[in-house]
Amino acid sequence: MSADTESSLKDLPKVDQSLKNQLEGFTPDKLKHADTSEKTVLPTKEDVETEKQQQAHLKAVEGFNPGGLRQTETKEKIVLPDKEDIQNEKTHQSILEGVATFDKSAMRHTETQEKVALPAKEDIQTEKTHQSIFQGVEGFDKSSMRHAETQEKVSLPAKEDIAQEKGQQALKKGIEGFDPANLKKTETQEKNPLPSKEVIEQEKAA
C-alpha cells in the first residue's frame, strides 16, 4: 500500500466503536416483516372538472382557425413635444454646453486650511470629573466597608383586611353550600290596571 493511500485512510472520519459493533453484529433476521399496501388516490370532482376545462382549452387552441381573423393596419402616431418640453430641453442643452466649454483658467487658486478645534474649559472640567469618578471606582478599597445584615420584614395584614377576608370566605361557602330545596314556591300574578274615568275622558278629548 502506497504512502498516499495510507494518508488518505488516516484522514477519513472515525466511526464510533459502539456504532461499529452494532453494524457488524446486524443480521437480517432481526427485521420485522411488513406488508406493503398500495393506495390509489382517485381524483375529486373538482380535479376532474378542472382537467376537463384544461383539455377543452387545449383543443380550442389546437383547432383555432387563423382564417377567421380580420386584417388590420397599424397606424403610427408621432407625438410632437409641447412648448414646456422644448423649453426644458433647451435649458438642459445649455447647461451641458456650459459644463463642456467651461474655462478652468478663470478659476482662482485657493488653499485649504485645517482648523483643529480645541476643547472648551467646561469640556476639560467635565472630562476631569469623569476620570476622577472612574479612578475612584477602580481604586475603591472594599476593606473600608462595614458589614451589614439584611433584615426581612413581613407585613402582617391589618384587622380590617382579616375581617374582609373572613366575610368573603363565608359568602363563598354560603353560595357553594346553598340548598335550592329551601326555596319557597311562589306564584306570579299578572295585573293589568284598567284606566280610570279621568284617563278615559282625557283620551276621548284628545
From TrEMBL:
<comment type="similarity">
    <text>Belongs to the thymosin beta family.</text>
</comment>
<dbReference type="GO" id="GO:0005856">
    <property type="term" value="C:cytoskeleton"/>
</dbReference>
<feature type="compositionally biased region" description="Basic and acidic residues">
    <location>
        <begin position="27"/>
        <end position="51"/>
    </location>
</feature>
<keyword id="KW-0963">Cytoplasm</keyword>
<feature type="region of interest" description="Disordered">
    <location>
        <begin position="139"/>
        <end position="206"/>
    </location>
</feature>
<protein>
    <submittedName>
        <fullName>Thymosin beta-4</fullName>
    </submittedName>
</protein>
<dbReference type="Pfam" id="PF01290">
    <property type="entry name" value="Thymosin"/>
</dbReference>
<feature type="compositionally biased region" description="Basic and acidic residues">
    <location>
        <begin position="139"/>
        <end position="164"/>
    </location>
</feature>
<dbReference type="InterPro" id="IPR001152">
    <property type="entry name" value="Beta-thymosin"/>
</dbReference>
<feature type="region of interest" description="Disordered">
    <location>
        <begin position="1"/>
        <end position="51"/>
    </location>
</feature>
<dbReference type="GO" id="GO:0003785">
    <property type="term" value="F:actin monomer binding"/>
</dbReference>
<dbReference type="GO" id="GO:0005829">
    <property type="term" value="C:cytosol"/>
</dbReference>
<dbReference type="GO" id="GO:0007015">
    <property type="term" value="P:actin filament organization"/>
</dbReference>
<dbReference type="InterPro" id="IPR038386">
    <property type="entry name" value="Beta-thymosin_sf"/>
</dbReference>
<keyword id="KW-0206">Cytoskeleton</keyword>
